[in-house]
């Protein structure tokens, strides 16, 4: 991971750290590594989204562990220095600065910690479609609903999950959402 961190320019590394701290503070639902990776690649750095996601997971673990253990900035930097693979100087400087400025604000309440282990719903999009024909059937005229859920997993990575439903399945899905809404109104 230290080798991949060396590739990331300091300003992008700082932005990644800031987003992770904001995610841990529940100010944003997650880190959009796909968008950040594309911007880093556009700047001429050869890094893939998988490596950037691993770095984000490592930094998220680092910051949340430091918060859980109430580490001061110096204790965190000393701990980083004693690691097996040493981080580049620019990365340690960024981590020091971000932790010094915002690290103490990470709220590790029990409820927030439990919620973070499941992930978080960010957005939902849907569209109605009709399958007209296929290789095996000339005339389908089969309506369906495609739903795309945007979720932030526990580490903060934002991903899209898509699925299709038949009209009866969608009606059941809709009915369940109406039930949830009516229960939430009583709270």
UniProtKB/TrEMBL annotation:
Pfam families, per database record = COMM_domain (PF07258)
Q: Where is the COMM domain?
A: 120-187
Q: Which GO terms describe its molecular function?
A: NF-kappaB binding
Family named by the database record? Belongs to the COMM domain-containing protein 6 family.
Instruction: Name the job this protein performs.
Output: Scaffold protein in the commander complex that is essential for endosomal recycling of transmembrane cargos; the commander complex is composed of the CCC subcomplex and the retriever subcomplex. May modulate activity of cullin-RING E3 ubiquitin ligase (CRL) complexes. Down-regulates activation of NF-kappa-B. Inhibits TNF-induced NFKB1 activation.
* Record-given protein name: COMM domain-containing protein 6
Source organism of the structure: Sylvietta virens (Green crombec)
């Amino acid at each position: 991971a230290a080798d991949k961190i060396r590739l990331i320019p300091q300003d992008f590394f700082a932005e990644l750290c800031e987003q992770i701290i904001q995610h841990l503070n529940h100010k944003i639902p997650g880190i959009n590594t796909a968008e950040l990776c594309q911007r880093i690649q556009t700047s001429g750095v050869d890094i893939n989204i998988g490596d950037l996601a691993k770095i984000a997971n490592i930094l998220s673990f680092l910051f949340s562990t430091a918060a859980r253990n109430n580490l001061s900035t110096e204790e965190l930097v000393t701990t980083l220095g004693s690691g097996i693979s040493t981080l580049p100087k620019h990365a340690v400087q960024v981590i020091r600065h971000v932790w010094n400025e915002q690290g103490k604000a990470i709220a590790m309440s029990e409820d927030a910690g439990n919620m973070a282990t499941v992930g978080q719903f960010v957005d939902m999009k849907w569209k109605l479609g009709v399958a007209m024909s296929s290789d095996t059937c000339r005339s389908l005229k089969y309506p369906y609903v495609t739903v795309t859920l945007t979720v932030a997993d526990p580490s903060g990575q934002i991903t899209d999950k898509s699925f299709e439903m038949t009209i009866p399945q969608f009606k059941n899905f809709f009915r369940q959402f109406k039930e949830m809404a009516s229960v939430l109104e009583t709270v």
